[in-house]
Amino acid sequence: MGTLARFHEAWSHPNYQPESVSEVELSELETEVGAAFPLSYRTQALEVGLPNPTTELWDWIEERISLADVLLGVNRPHLSYFLAPDDIREALDWRDMGMPVFLLPFLIDSLGNNICFDMRELGQNSIPDASVYIWDHDFNETERLARSFDTFLGFYLP
Question: Which Pfam families match (predicted)?
Answer without folding.
Answer: SMI1_KNR4
